Structure to design on (526 residues):
């Protein structure tokens, strides 16, 4: 009984970390792309954004 | 596209042109590290120090993630509600962006809560799913989040998207307690209540630590997502400014 | 005086919507036919055992109503969208809530007619014996239709103007209707039987509360949502 429950415990923690790290990776990727776009745009637009 | 002059738009959104295109502050990477370190520490501590229980063995350890994830889902949900209402009241673009960020994070945690609920439920109850009040209202909450995010994906005009999301977010929020109540009645009148997963007091310390750690992670996620949302919006504003001011 | 003007506007909008729908070729007939077709398919999928069908009857009627209802709600805004009449309607003097109220009246009439047909079909196809308490069942159904129409009209005012309206309206609407579905089906089932646990009263009160809460909430929210 306990051994088969171990399977579920491992599954639970694996799924949790997959989801959390997966979402983190998505945010990091999106974040660097957004920063890059922003830096590019604010250079192209004279007078756009703070000087 | 709206026919209002640009100055009127700026005044309406409550922001000067500088703030609309100013870069949002960077979310602290250090804070992110601390949050994740805290989460690992809390989980290691709880797993090692909590006792085995009855014939379920160590199964209750899943609760260390499942319960805080559910709490984070509901906290995110309240953030969506609060900033949706605030947006309808003050029409400040950043409020809408924050609500949307909290919705995306909330949807992620709600999905995780459901998956962990099923992974716990299979050995505990013998089935992958039961239509009990908590699981079912969490599922409905998940669908409400999904609907909110779908609405945002299918509306192109930024101001309309903000107003509609805020209305949908607020009205969806009102429904969640009603759904919980109705599913509870629906169950109790026809079957004995399924024994809820109440935790042994030996687990509370670990649960609290995990909850605090996961809260730090949630705050980090929401801030990072909000930073991205503001960057993307700032790029749109810059593009508009270029289109109008150019040649 | 202003109240009379408002009320007149509400009736005018309701009348316009209803006549457009009832005259349109694919309007009421199409939606009602679809509802009955769905009911038939449900009968085929859940039958042929007579007991199983009788147990499934209430749920089947409500599901057929829900799925066809979403068509009706999107259509109630389609007319203005296609002819570009929404902006002039908004510019016309008069409070916005009258637009919402007018559409609510029209949709309520439309859906009630449809539900009557679906219930008749359900009684025949699923082998229901009409109990003595049938007026109470009608009351429950009416309250359920109110909830359906209020939220359906509200979400359709947005979904109909977005991309992917066919998918967005059910996606937004159906999670919101969970309490209505549970309350209406459970109360109806109880009333069709003996209602041993006297639950129909409690569910009816839930429906009334739900309808009131969302009637008020959607009226308030409609102002924010109807701007073009």
């Amino acid at each position: 009984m306990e051994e088969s429950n171990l399977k579920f415990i491992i599954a639970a923690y694996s799924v949790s970390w997959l989801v959390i790290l997966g979402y983190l990776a998505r945010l990091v990727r999106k974040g660097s792309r957004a920063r890059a776009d922003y830096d590019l745009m604010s250079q192209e637009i004279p007078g756009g954004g703070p000087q | 596209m709206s026919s209002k002059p640009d100055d009127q738009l700026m005044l309406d959104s409550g922001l000067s042109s500088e703030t609309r295109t100013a870069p949002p502050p960077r979310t602290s990477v250090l804070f992110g590290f601390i949050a994740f370190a805290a989460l690992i520490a809390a989980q290691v501590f709880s797993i090692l120090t909590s006792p085995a229980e009855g014939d379920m063995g160590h199964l209750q350890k899943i609760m260390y993630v499942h319960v805080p994830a559910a709490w984070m889902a509901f906290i995110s949900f309240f953030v969506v509600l609060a900033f949706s209402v605030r947006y309808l009241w003050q029409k400040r673009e950043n409020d809408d962006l924050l609500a949307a960020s909290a919705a995306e994070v909330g949807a992620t945690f709600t999905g995780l809560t459901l998956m962990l609920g099923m992974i716990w439920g299979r050995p505990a109850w013998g089935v992958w799913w039961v239509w009990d009040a908590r699981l079912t209202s969490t599922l409905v909450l998940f669908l409400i989040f999904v609907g909110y995010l779908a609405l945002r994906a299918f509306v192109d005009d930024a101001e309309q998207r903000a107003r509609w999301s805020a209305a949908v977010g607020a009205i969806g929020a009102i429904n969640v307690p009603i759904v919980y109540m109705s599913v509870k009645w629906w169950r109790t009148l026809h079957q004995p209540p399924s024994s809820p997963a109440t935790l042994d007091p030996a687990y509370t310390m670990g649960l609290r630590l995990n909850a605090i750690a996961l809260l730090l992670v949630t705050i980090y996620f929401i801030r990072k997502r909000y930073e991205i949302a503001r960057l993307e919006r700032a790029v749109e504003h810059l593009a508009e400014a270029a289109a109008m001011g150019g040649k | 005086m202003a109240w009379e003007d408002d009320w007149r506007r509400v009736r005018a909008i309701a009348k316009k919507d209803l006549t457009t729908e009832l005259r349109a070729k694919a309007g009421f007939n199409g939606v009602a036919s679809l509802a009955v077709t769905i009911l038939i398919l449900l009968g085929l999928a859940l039958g042929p055992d007579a007991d199983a069908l009788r147990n499934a009857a209430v749920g089947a009627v409500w599901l057929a109503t829900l799925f066809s209802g979403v068509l009706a709600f999107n259509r109630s805004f389609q007319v203005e969208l296609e002819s570009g009449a929404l902006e002039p309607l908004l510019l016309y003097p008069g409070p916005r809530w009258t637009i919402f109220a007018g559409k609510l009246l029209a949709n309520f009439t439309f859906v009630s007619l449809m539900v009557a047909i679906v219930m008749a079909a359900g009684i025949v196809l699923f082998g229901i014996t009409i109990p003595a308490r049938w007026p109470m069942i009608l009351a429950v159904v009416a309250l359920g239709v109110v909830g359906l129409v209020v939220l359906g009209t509200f979400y359709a005012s947005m979904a109909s103007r977005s991309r992917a309206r066919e998918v967005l309206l059910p996606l937004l609407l159906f999670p919101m209707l969970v309490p209505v579905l549970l309350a209406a089906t459970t109360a109806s089932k109880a009333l069709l039987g003996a209602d041993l646990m006297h639950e129909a009263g409690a569910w009816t009160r839930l429906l009334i509360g739900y309808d009131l809460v969302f009637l008020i909430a959607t009226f308030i929210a409609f102002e924010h949502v109807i701007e073009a």
Observations:
- Chain B touches chain C through 30 residues (CB under 8 Å).
